[in-house]
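Notebook p. 47: complex prediction with S-adenosylmethionine.
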Amino acid sequence: MSVATPRRGGAADPARLLAWEVLRAVDERGAYANLMLPALMAGRRLSSRDRGLATELTYGSLRAMGTLDGVLGTVTSRPVDTVDPPVRDALRLGTYQLLSTRVPARAAVASTVDLVRATCGERPVRFANAVLRRVAARIEETEGDIAVLLSAPDVNVDPAGHLTVVTAHPRWIVDVVLEALGGDAAAARAALVANDTRPTVHLVARPGRISADELVEQAAAVGLRARRSVFSPYAVYLDGGDPGALPAVRAGAAAVQDEGSQLVALALAAVPTVGRLTGLTVDLCAGPGGKAALLAGALAADQPPAFGQPPAADQPSPSQPGQPPRAERRPRLLALEPRAARAGLVEASLAGFPDAWTVRADGRLPPVRPGTADRVLVDVPCSGLGALRRRPEARWRRTPADVAALVPLQRQLLVAALDLVRPGGVVAYVTCSPHPEETSEVVMAVVRQRADIAILDARRSEALAGALAGTSAEGPFVQLWPHLHGTDAMFLALLRRRSD
Ligand SMILES: C[S@@+](CC[C@H](N)C(=O)[O-])C[C@H]1O[C@@H](n2cnc3c(N)ncnc32)[C@H](O)[C@@H]1O
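Predicted complex, structure tokens below:
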């Protein structure tokens, strides 16, 4: 992998140099830090202390970039975005150390100046030194209180403006999170702060392939600490270490999969359908295949109601008098994905499931007769705002235009899913986002156009009972959150095609 190598000689601290190289790659080539950092680290001989420092500086600086630029803006006479980018990235790293680490101010300034000299030459050294000394002085004056340093608006007067500054997120994302949480500033702050935490690795023990208990035992056998979740019966939490060390992961019997993704797929598998079963489940947007494999396993095991009895009222049991027995038709899963590389990944993840097929196709034109599926999962392409904690730079890359561009496709895919499901069957509309424009508003816009759709109360899904216990969000949709559920911010709507 080619990297932005230092342009000039001189001694730079190896951890800071590595962090700077990742920041340059992110800035210059749109690299993903979570892929770039381990790749670069693999080629260096670094102490574990330096690895830890490089990781903290890289991820911390990328997450806080807007705040760091704001702080730099208070001490430079020209706009920060006019500073030579390699110098600017070094200044961001220095400012991050001054603001958010225990590195003594003198060492933070000196090491950043060394980094500038080593990577950019002698010319910008005086400028960098002066800027960082002023930053250090400002931080000392304000006791490091970022709200004071950046003159954040009062939280009671302008909650979004305040949160923008103190949580280091772009204003539009703060607005989205506030809206999704009903304007509750304290909850929004917790949700935004959670984007700065590194998520626990969640594994899925694919039903029919390996049990969660067996996976925990296997982890212990290879020296990894793992434990079962109390929410998804198939989830295992890994307390560090490489998931690839597990034979089950290498064999595809288990995989890394956020528990929120597991729960929404299981909610679809668990919701009873009404009327004659066809046995067909379709995953309309399957790549890379995580939910498809879980659905295939859960449906084949025919044990989704492992979560208990279906709730009454709008979720009638399939085995009511006069209805066919549940297993009249063998469950089959059809997974669609238009992109070749991703379709290949779906195929690989479904390899152990003989009744699951992958077809490369556009979900808007599925090669299946309308009205024939018992269940359809439509996990639409979305902004990914629900997984910001996984990509440190993502919050500054995404724009409102990304969301607006996706909404028409999301609506079309939901319409296609509703056409595909048979009367009495159920569609799960899923996004990894809490943005109302691509979650509830898409669902409501589509459902308003159709008289044949009933919205189910997804909160009543037994699959979600454990995760939602003790929370009191409004229905009928479910929004999971990192700060509440420890999952990505997955959205779920369950829609039944009326049979009357
Ligand atoms: C959010 S991801 C799905 C994740 C998947 N369900 C999983 O759990 O692994 C959305 C997927 O939709 C695919 N996609 C994009 N446009 C599509 C279309 N017109 N029809 C079907 N799928 C599409 C993308 O390539 C991407 O793989």
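Notes: Residues 456 and 494 are 5 Å apart (CA to CA). The two ends are 59 Å apart (CA to CA).
Next step: compare against the earlier run before touching the bench.
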